[in-house]
Amino acid sequence: MSIPSLLMFSLLFVTSSASDHDFCVADLSQPDTPSGFACKDVKKVTAQDFLFRLGTPENMNNTFKYAITLASAVEFPGTNGLRLSMARLDIAPSGVFPMHTHRGANEILFVESGTMTVGFISSDNTVYSKTLNKWDIFVFPQGLLHFLVNSGKVTAIAVASFSSSRPGLQFLDSALFSNSLPSEVVEATTLLDPKEVEKLKGVFGGSG
Amino acid sequence: MSIPSLLMFSLLFVTSSASDHDFCVADLSQPDTPSGFACKDVKKVTAQDFLFRLGTPENMNNTFKYAITLASAVEFPGTNGLRLSMARLDIAPSGVFPMHTHRGANEILFVESGTMTVGFISSDNTVYSKTLNKWDIFVFPQGLLHFLVNSGKVTAIAVASFSSSRPGLQFLDSALFSNSLPSEVVEATTLLDPKEVEKLKGVFGGSG
Amino acid sequence: MSIPSLLMFSLLFVTSSASDHDFCVADLSQPDTPSGFACKDVKKVTAQDFLFRLGTPENMNNTFKYAITLASAVEFPGTNGLRLSMARLDIAPSGVFPMHTHRGANEILFVESGTMTVGFISSDNTVYSKTLNKWDIFVFPQGLLHFLVNSGKVTAIAVASFSSSRPGLQFLDSALFSNSLPSEVVEATTLLDPKEVEKLKGVFGGSG
Amino acid sequence: MSIPSLLMFSLLFVTSSASDHDFCVADLSQPDTPSGFACKDVKKVTAQDFLFRLGTPENMNNTFKYAITLASAVEFPGTNGLRLSMARLDIAPSGVFPMHTHRGANEILFVESGTMTVGFISSDNTVYSKTLNKWDIFVFPQGLLHFLVNSGKVTAIAVASFSSSRPGLQFLDSALFSNSLPSEVVEATTLLDPKEVEKLKGVFGGSG
Amino acid sequence: MSIPSLLMFSLLFVTSSASDHDFCVADLSQPDTPSGFACKDVKKVTAQDFLFRLGTPENMNNTFKYAITLASAVEFPGTNGLRLSMARLDIAPSGVFPMHTHRGANEILFVESGTMTVGFISSDNTVYSKTLNKWDIFVFPQGLLHFLVNSGKVTAIAVASFSSSRPGLQFLDSALFSNSLPSEVVEATTLLDPKEVEKLKGVFGGSG
Amino acid sequence: MSIPSLLMFSLLFVTSSASDHDFCVADLSQPDTPSGFACKDVKKVTAQDFLFRLGTPENMNNTFKYAITLASAVEFPGTNGLRLSMARLDIAPSGVFPMHTHRGANEILFVESGTMTVGFISSDNTVYSKTLNKWDIFVFPQGLLHFLVNSGKVTAIAVASFSSSRPGLQFLDSALFSNSLPSEVVEATTLLDPKEVEKLKGVFGGSG
Q: Which residues in chain E have Cβ-Cβ distances shorter than 8 Å to B204?
């Protein structure tokens, strides 16, 4: 088969004109929209935009003895618009990842090391809970309260995958006790004791 | 349990880094996109952005004796991107809300006061119609012709919810008779009599 | 214009063959799917399937002094697959609608009567709160903790619209305290005091 | 390179276990769902399921002198769930495809032969209209009234593509005049003259 | 019926305030987003924005003897955000449209003239193939390898419809052989012979 | 606070009536639909349904020296309808995971151990490639050809997350060479040499 080079150019021209929007790497300096951030100019996109390192996390010297390393569209712009993102969770021995929800994503957790007891609570208040070890994966449906407890003797590490590039993360305690939400509203809408609310507002820095 | 304040800061820092895009209040001065308006800077968003008052409507001194108060993303930017919006409908005695469609949303109508006979027509030309009173709700599937008739003796008021922050609203008469659509096209594609078309073009301000 | 009746039949035959799936009223006796319930035979669908009465609610003699009347796809099959549903909320004087989330829907609340102070907490723990009166509408974004407090002197009534025919509803207290979730897990993942957990498990019927 | 046949079998086994749901050909004997019909057993699917012939249409001896050949999920089960379908339109000289909407799909029309003047009317009542010839394509956004007029001297034929496997089709005249919708409702909600309504009910077979 | 002109103005004002976002014609000078390009100012939109001519294609003097005329959002901004676009394919006698995929869309092909043998390969490696003539339409599910062969004696022409305004187009040969993908990677991940890779890199302009 | 037990029952009754469809575990014995498999009866769902073990894979004694352990909706029914699934990939030293696509999902790869060089090719034939080590994650956009090469000295293991519970998997070689696709079609649409096609059909078990 003879393929004159002139014809080849014709072929190549045609194929490249269809090449837009295989991806939309976030340009965080441009406006955000309901579907995600505006796209970085494709001519400036490199392989580096699709790589993120879930490396050594910050220390776990907080109340609950955990660390979280987020890789959603803000931290990892290559996930923008892809309906997918990740996070790394580290939990020290006797630590927990506290009760929380993701408003915008389902989650599958992959246990990389250690042992953790995890669970979620459904709308009819059923508890679905399991103890997981390395290679186990577990589903947390969108928007339901869930938790992770390190039930082993070493640091437990997991990689969470989310069905959104911006899953959201609402910690129950921070939502209730770290802001100006009036104590009487917290008390009336949760039945928590005023002293308990006062104590936890102290822990989490809330006022009001 | 002892919780040194230093550790608390670590906790709080972590929780706030996950806080983007719980919502996307419309910034109407920025570009519109297929998924909605670009988002207002979250630091400038206040509770006021999520509040709208469906208060006293404009008068109902028009041909059909109705008033509509829209609360879609343009009027109520807090709904932008949320796949949800509202409108208030007032219909004076012997008035109607004329035949229309919403190109982009299903609708549930809540009757706040009065009595109205409503209905929609399906693709196979079946009429689904009911007379509604206060506390009744009724479904109008997306894109189908529907209507509301005040069948009581007082002004009837309803609140419509839509499955889009921009449901669209096409009034049949305005679409046919208030613009430059040539009369012969209207006549040929609807079989309406030329005199009828001329009369209604007069009523609705159409030319051509 | 002469229109022989034979030709008319031809026209009608053509138009009716396009008439499927304007809606998908739930047939609760058939399987559920990720997109909703299987559809009721369209030949059995009547206008009644699109009507629901948010009438007099059950009594409000519970701890929080509220009542909820749901109109999602299970209770109101006409909303199945339409990305829209409703609920009526009644709150007695000094009552509240307790802290909760909807895993699957944004919400717009319409205040039908009375006065209520409502609010939601965003992922970065900001509180967005307003006091509402009749004709006010307020947005609660999907999956975030929110609450309603009757801040008037009479029963307050609202109609909530959701961006899903099955929005889900998770009450914070019921999720934590009405089931077999071990008390030590609740305590470790929320920092609530063991005595507080014990007390609320008593109130909400939890074990473990 | 040597590739023992034993190893090959291992390879093949692995590749075939990932093979579900590239498509979901409709099994019309099974239940319909909000996302479309249940799928035909993939083992019974053949290439024939993906082929449809938009061949010679029925005659155009109706009032408007057009014929439509539908290829949506009901007629062409291979499109089920694919968010795409087609239809063929034939319009005789001096004929039209009457005023109509598609509740569930955007449309692009490809003119295969002849000349037609087409247009749609937007929500703000602007008319977007063009005269098209062979190889022209034209967009009709979802849910808006639109029409086609044969403005040439021979039969005009077009192929319409829709952004849904079930776009819906509501003819304006059939919706208003071919059913039991009470004449006084038609009159009040459209301002059409009672005599005009009576005449068109006669043409389209309506009662009431 | 008397309709004072003052009342008419009230009617018209009301109807026009609902008129946003029936469509979102791409403004290619503004940012791209995950949901598509930002919208052209609606006041500058004309009927011309919704028209595209799939006219005479470029010559077919390339290796495979085909031409493609794209009408996706980049070439035809009126399709932006509409989940629908088109392309025209011309294949000379003894030519083919080479093996390729569309990452973002299902396709229905309409054969406008000539005869072509087309097919796709499913995830379980089944071949679904048919020979098509004028008026035949054929479905290619999203993301699967497919091909078209002119199996007649004259140029074959088809119009492809896609379920996205930006379907993407990846030619197998161009992906493997027209870039800097190292030959040893191509060889190891496809088992192609080094000489074959070298030859095709020569044809398609690849290096490495 | 006194909370009579009678009132408590009222509260609990109300909360449980909202509890449907937090998830839709696949019931593989029921029909498949475009949105996924019909749901298992929620009363039979247990925590076990949300757990999967990506344990020791099958051997890697195949041509490419890899193994894949799938956890999509068919293997892991708890992911059904959740727009999320996983797979484990093992690649022996000097092995590769061959050139392939996922028709229905974006992917993020997490490297659990070893070193691998991965890459994808965009529609404009640009190669985006990186060498990854433990804790690195990398994005592969939907439907684009991509590959993984073990570029270290030990077995490399990765966990892939997909933005669909049924991502699909099409191996390039299997698609071209393991079925009855006629050799002349392969040759014409890829320009591969007939001898090369014959050789690879031998390797992958193709006929024709």
A: 8, 11-12
Q: Is E71 on the interface with A (CB under 8 A)?
A: no
Q: Do the chains contact at E31 and B31, CB–CB below 8 Å?
A: yes
Whether C20 maps to a domain, the answer reads no
H or E element in which residue E157 lies: strand E156-162
Residues D93 and D189 in one domain: no
For residue F70, give the CATH number of its domain.
Answer: 2.60.120.10
Chain F environment of D78 (Cβ under 8 Å): none
Q: Is residue F85 part of a domain?
A: yes
Kindly state the average pLDDT of the residues C31-59.
94
> Which residues does E179 contact at the CB level (< 8 Å), separation at least 6?
E206, E207, E208, F121, F125, F126, F127
Q: Is any Cβ of chain E less than 8 angstroms from the Cβ of D93?
A: no
Q: Is residue B2 part of a domain?
A: no
Task: Please indicate, yes or no, whether residues C184 and C103 belong to a single structural domain of this protein.
Answer: no
Asked whether the beta carbons of residue E84 and residue D163 sit closer than 8 angstroms, the reply is yes
Residues E154, E61: one domain? Answer: yes
Q: Is the domain of E145 the same as that of E52?
A: yes
On whether both B131 and B153 belong to a single domain, the answer is yes
For residues A186 and A102, state if they share a domain. Answer: no
Kindly state whether residue E39 falls inside one of the protein's structural domains.
no
Please name which of B84, B78, B59 lies closest in space to residue B69, comparing C-alpha atoms. Answer: B59
Same domain, B104 and B195: no
Comparing C-alpha atoms, which of C139, C78, C133 is closest to residue B109? C78
Number of structural domains in chain E: 2
pLDDT band at C20, cuts 50/70/90? low
Please give the model's pTM, rounded to 2 decimal places. Answer: 0.94
Q: What interface predicted TM-score (ipTM) does this complex get?
A: 0.92
On whether the CB atoms of residues E49 and E78 are closer than 8 A, the answer is: yes
C16 has a pLDDT exceeding 80: no
Which residues in chain E have their CB less than 8 angstroms from residue D1's CB? 191
Q: What is the mean pLDDT of residues A130-137?
A: 98
Interface check C22 vs D, CB under 8 A: yes
CB D187 within 8 A of CB D198: no
CB distance from C71 to chain B under 8 Å? yes
Q: Given an 8 Å threshold on Cβ–Cβ distance, is A58 in contact with B12?
A: no
**Rounded distance between C-alpha atoms, residue C26 and residue C77, angstroms:** 5
Burial degree of D38 (CB within 10 A; 0-12, 13-18, 19+): buried
Q: Is pLDDT of F16 > 50?
A: no
Q: Same domain for F108 and F86?
A: yes
Residue B167 has pLDDT above 70, yes or no: yes
pLDDT reading at D13 higher than 60: no
Domain with E131, as residue range(s), is 47-168
Q: Which helix (H) or strand (E) holds C148?
A: strand C146-150
Q: Inter-chain contact A15–E72, Cβ cutoff 8 Å? A: no
**Which chain B residues are within 8 Å of A68, Cβ to Cβ?**
14, 18
Kindly list the residues from chain C whose CB atom is less than 8 angstroms away from the CB atom of residue A200.
Answer: 191-192
Which chain B residue has the Cα nearest residue A179?
Answer: B12
